[in-house]
Amino acid sequence: IGEWITPGTRFPLEVARDADVGSNSLLTYQLTSNPFFSLALKERPDGSKQPELVLERALDREKQSSFELVLTAVDGGDPMRTGNVQVRVNVTDLNDNPPVFSKSVYEARVAENLPVGSLVLRVVATDADAGSNGRVSYSFSNVADGVRSLFTVDSDSGEVRTVGALDFEENSKYIFDLEASDGGGFTAHCKAQIDITDENDNSPEITILSLSSPVPEDAPVGTVVALLKVRDRDSGENGQVSCELSGEAPLSIVASSGGSYKVLVLAKALDREEAAFHELVLRAIDGGDPARTGTARIRVTVVDANDNAPVFSQAEYTVRVPEDIPVGSVLITVTATDADEGLYGKVKYS
C-alpha cells in the first residue's frame, strides 16, 4: 500500500473456505487490532462474506514501513473452528521527504600549496525516503567559473577536492553553494566556506623607484641617493621584510614609516679620487621559515668636484744661469698636477 493512499480505501483479502455445509460452514472474520487498519465484510452475491482491509489513518513509511496483521476466519459450528492467515502490509514509498544536510555551513582550512586532487571537505545529506527517492546526488549550485576551475564535488560521495592550484595572494577565502538532489526531484542546499592559509611561497620584490646617479663627490652626508619599494605578497611573518646592504658602499638604509619604502642615503663623504663608482647589493629577507630573499643591484657613479688644488712636483725649484744668457731662453720647466678630472684637473701657470 502506498503511503499516499487516502484513509477509507479498501483492499480485498482472501476468502476462507470451509468444507462443512450448512451453519458449520458459515464464516465470519476477525482482524487483530491496529489503529491504522480495520476489517469490513462485503456481502457477495452467493451470500458469503468478502473480508476487506480498510485503511483508517494516513501511512508514513518513514515512521513504519510494514505491518503484521492476523486475519481469523470463524465458522458457525459448535464448537467453533477457526483458521488464521498472516497479512503483511508493506508500505511503499512516496517522495515526501527532501534531502537534509547535516550542516548548513561546512568549513575547511587548507594551505595554499595543497596538491591538486586533495580532499578539502565532505558534505553529507540524508533522505528519509527509500529507493531512488532517498538516493542523494551532490553538485554545485550556481557557482562562478572561478570556483569550478579550482574545486570539484563528487556526485556520489559529496567530497569536495581541488582541481586547480590555490593561491592565498589571489584569494584567501571561497564561499559557494552545494546542492543535494534526490531521485524524486527534491533538493537541499548548504554553503561551503574554504579558508586558504598562507605559505611562504613568494620572495620579496625590490623595485627601484628612483636613483640619483651620478652623485657629486661633495654631496653632503644624508643626501638621498635612491628610493626603493620592497614588497612581499605573503602575509603575516611570511610577508615581514628586513633589508641589508652588502658591499663596502658609503650608503645606509633608512626605512619609511610604513616599512614598504626604503631610502638609500649617504652615510659618509664621497671621494671620487678613491672610488669613481660604488656597486652594492640590497638584500630583502622575509620572516618565513625557511626565509626567502630578493636582491637588487645598484651602481652609483661619483662625479668629480673641484676639491683638490694643483700640486707642484717640487715645492722649490733652483736654477743657476749665466748672466749673459740670451733673452727668451728657457730657464726651467715646472710641473703641477691636479687629482680632479676634466676642467677641474686642467692646470694653468702664472
TrEMBL record:
SMART domains: CA. Residues 16-101, 102-206, 207-312, 313-350 form the Cadherin domain. PROSITE patterns: CADHERIN_1 (PS00232), CADHERIN_2 (PS50268). GO terms for molecular function: calcium ion binding. It comes from the Eukaryota. GO terms for biological process: homophilic cell adhesion via plasma membrane adhesion molecules. One of its GO terms (cellular component) is plasma membrane. It is a single-pass type I membrane protein. Keywords: Calcium, Cell adhesion, Cell membrane, Glycoprotein, Membrane, Repeat, Signal, Transmembrane, Transmembrane helix. This is PCDGD protein. It is found in: Cell membrane.
